[in-house]
Amino acid sequence: MLGYTVSRLLQAIPILFLVSLMAFGIIYLIPGDAATVIGGPSASAQDLAQIRANLGLDQPLHVQILTFYTNLLQGDLGRSLLLGVPVTEAIIQRSPVTIGIAIYSLVLTIVLGLSTGIIAALNHNRWLDQAATIFALIGVSLPNFWLALVMIVLFSVNLGWLPTGGYVPFSQDPIGWLRTATMPAVSLALLQAGLLTRITRSTMLEVLSQDYIRTARSKGISEWKVVGKHALANVMMPVVTVLGLILSVLLSGSIVIETIFGVPGIGALLGNAISSRDYPMIQGGLLFVTAALLLLNILVDVLYTWLDPRIRVGGGK
Amino acid sequence: MPSRRFLDLLLPGALTALLSTTSVMAQEAFTCPATGGDLIVGIESGVPTLDQHTATSSATRNVAMNIFETLVIRDENMNPAPDLAASIDVSEDGLTYTFVLREGVKFHNGKPLTTADVVASFDRYKELGVNRATLDVVASWEATDDMTFVITLNQAQPTFLESLSSYTVPIVIVPAEEAAKPAGQIEPIGTGPFKFAEFVPDSFVRLERYDEYVANDSFPGLSGFAGHKQACVDTVTFRMLTEPGARMAALETGEVHIAENVPTISQERLAGTEGVELVRLENFALNVAYPNWSAPPTDNLQVRQAILAALDMEEIMEAATDGAFELNPSFQFPDTGYYSTAGEEFYNQHDLEKAKALLAESGYNNEPIVLLTNQQFPNMYNSALVMAAQLQAAGMNAELRASSTGRRLLPPVRRKPRAGTSSSRSGPR
Q: What's the CATH code of the domain at A233?
C-alpha cells in the first residue's frame, strides 16, 4: 500500500510540472501584450515598461522560466496585483474557508446521495424509487447559483432561519459557522447528491441481483445486514470513484457560490483575480487548485485500494 | 488679496451668504439622531485595497474616505472646500497656494498631523497616485513650518483647486512613515472620524469611531465629502455583497441597514416593504463618451458632429439605467457651481438625416469607429451597445470593443489616445 501511494505521488510530479508550465504560459496566452491588458487602455509607455519589469517580461524567455521555477520551488508565487499581498499568503488565508465548506458539502452529498440511492434501489420501481429519481434529476439539472438565490429568498427572506450571506470562522463561533456555511454547502451539495444518487441506485440494483446476495438472503440474514454489510461494501466502489470528480466540481462551483454568499474563500479570490486580470494570483490559484485536486484524487485512489484489495496492482502491501 | 470664489468659503460673512442661497446645505449644527451601535452597509463591489492613493475603485474610495482626509475636498455642490486645511491663500499671480493646517489634528495612531506628513503624502501621490497628472502643473511643494504647506505652480491654472479637490482618487494625507511604503502595502491610518478595525478581503471592512477626531468647525454640518464630520455610530461594517439579489435579501431581512445600487426590478417590491426607504440619488453619475480627437476618423470635426447628431440620449439612458435617469445637456449636475445649458441644442438631436449629411460632407469613408467600453459596469456597456446601433443606423461603421473589466490595476499617467477610439465612463470628475 505504501509502495502504491509513493508511486501515485511520483506520477503526480509530471502532471504538476505540466500544469505549472501552463500557469507560466498564461501570461503568453493573452492576445497581444500582457502589459497592455493589465495596464488598461490608459496606461502610459512608462507604466507598461514598469508592468513588464514587475512581471519579469523584459527578461529573455529562459531566464523567465528559470526565475519562475526557482521562485515556485521556494513557495514564492509572486505578489497579487490587486491585493498587494503575496499570492501564497492570500491562498493560505483563504483556503480554510473553502475547505471547510467543501467538507461540509461533501458530507451532505454523501449522506444525501447514498441514502437516497439505496432507498431507491431497495424500492425498485415503486413510488419511492421514482421520487428519488426525480430528486436526482432535479439536483443534476438545477444550476447551483439559481438554487443559491432561491434558498436565500426562502430560508432568509421568507422564513428568517439563516443569514443571507457572510461568513463566520468555525474557530470563532461554530454555530455561526454552521448558520453561514449551510446554504453555500447545500447549494453545492444538491447537484453532486443527484449524481451520487443515480450512481448508488444503479450499482445497488446490480449488486442486489448478484448470487452472493441471494446466498446471504437464503441463509436467513436480516435484510438490514444483507444491504448494510454485504451489498454496501461493493456499492462503495463506484461511489469512491466519483468522489474525486465531486471534489473538483465542489472547488470550481465555489467561485460562483462564494461570490453570491459573500464568503471570502478561494473561489471568491480566484473569481476576482480573473475579472481583474490579476495574473500572479490566477497563476498561483491554478497551481494550488490543481495540486489540491491531484492530492485528493491520490487519496481517493489509495482509499480505493484499501476498500478493494483486488485493485492493489503489482501486489504492493 | 483673496478674491476667488473658493476663498469666499473661508470668510464667515461669505459663508453665511452662501448658506442663505443654498437650500440643501445644513442650516443648523448637525446632531446625531441616534448614537452607538453597528451600522452595516451592503456595498455592490469588492474593496480591493484601502490604499486610497493607488485605487481606482469607487468602493475603496467610499470606505476609505471615512478613514482619511485631504487638504481640500468637494462639498455637496461640487465646490472645493477646505478639509484638513484651516485656510487656503492664493497669491495674486495665481502661482503660489499656501495651506495652513487645522490645529490639534491627530492621526489614528496618536501622532499629531504636521506638514511633514502632507509633503510625504504628496510625494507618494506624485509617484504612484492614480490621478497624478493633477500634479503635473506643480513646480514644487514644501513645508515652510510645521503647519504651513506651500504649493508653487509652473503656470497659473484657475481650476487648480478644483482638480486638487477631486474625489475620484483623492490625495489623502497619510502619516509620513506610511507614505514611504509601496502601493497596496500601507496601514490604513488617517485623521478621519472613523479608524480602521478589520478587513477581510471579499467579505467586509469594519471601521470604529475615532474618539479623538477633531472636526472642522468652520462648517455647521456635513456637506458632501467636506464639512463638520461626526461619527454617530460605534462601528460601521461595509459588507461586500456583489450579487444584487443577495444584497437586496440582506436588506429585507435587516442584516444590512443600507444597501447601495438597488436594481430597478427590485424597487417596486422594496418600496412596499415595511421599514425600507428608497433614496434616489439624483446626482449620482454621468455617462460620458470621449471621442478621440487625435486619430481618424474622429479627428474630423464633422464626423464628431455627425455622431452627436445621430444620438438618441433617451434610448441610450433607458438601456443604461432601466429608466432611472434625467437627461442633462451639461457635464455638471443641476444646482452645482458650473452647471450650464450652453450648447444644449447639440444634445439629444436624434437627427439621422443631419448626421448623414454631415458624414457626406466630412469625407468619411466607412472607416471603423470603435467604441471602447467594459463589461463590468452594465450601465456603461449598455450605453455603448445602444450608441453603436444608433451610429450604424446613421451610416457609420461603428464597432463595440468591450474589455472584461473596468478595473485598472495600475494607474494611468496620461491618457494617450488610441486610433479611432472613444471610451465610455460614468461619474463626475
A: 1.10.3720.10
How many domains does chain A contain in total? 1
Say if A59 falls within a structural domain.
Answer: no
pTM for the predicted model, two decimal places? 0.78
Whether the Cβ atoms of residue B45 and residue B59 lie closer than 8 Å to each other: yes
Taking the alpha carbons at both ends of chain B, their separation in whole angstroms is 29
The closest CB to that of B252, out of A81, A85, A157, belongs to A157
> What is residue A230's predicted lDDT score, i.e. its pLDDT?
75
Task: Tell if the CB–CB gap between A82 and B252 is shorter than 8 Å.
Answer: no
Cβ-defined contacts of A134-139 (< 8 Å, 24+): A135/A194, A135/A197, A136/A193, A136/A194, A136/A195, A136/A197, A136/A198, A136/A201, A137/A194, A138/A194, A139/A190, A139/A191, A139/A192, A139/A193, A139/A194, A139/A195, A139/A197
Please indicate, yes or no, if residue A258 is contained in any of the structural domains: yes
Structural domain contains residue A32: no
Q: What's the ipTM?
A: 0.75
Question: Cβ–Cβ of A41/B252 closer than 8 Å?
Answer: no
A171 to chain B, any CB pair closer than 8 A? The answer is: no
Name the residue range of residue A296's domain: 87-312
**Cell triple for B315:** 434610448
Contact between A261 and A165 (Cβ < 8 Å) = yes
Average pLDDT over residues B286-315: 92
Residue A278 CA to residue A272 CA, distance in Å, equals: 8
Contacts of A43 in chain B (CB under 8 A): 408, 410, 412-413
Which residues from A are below 8 Å from B46, CB to CB?
272
Q: How many residues does chain B have?
A: 429
Residue A240 lies in a domain: yes
Return the residue in A276, A281, A282 with the most chain B beta carbons within 10 A, the one to mutate for interface testing. Answer: A276
For chain B, positions 253-292, list CB contacts with chain A under 8 A. Answer: 253, 255
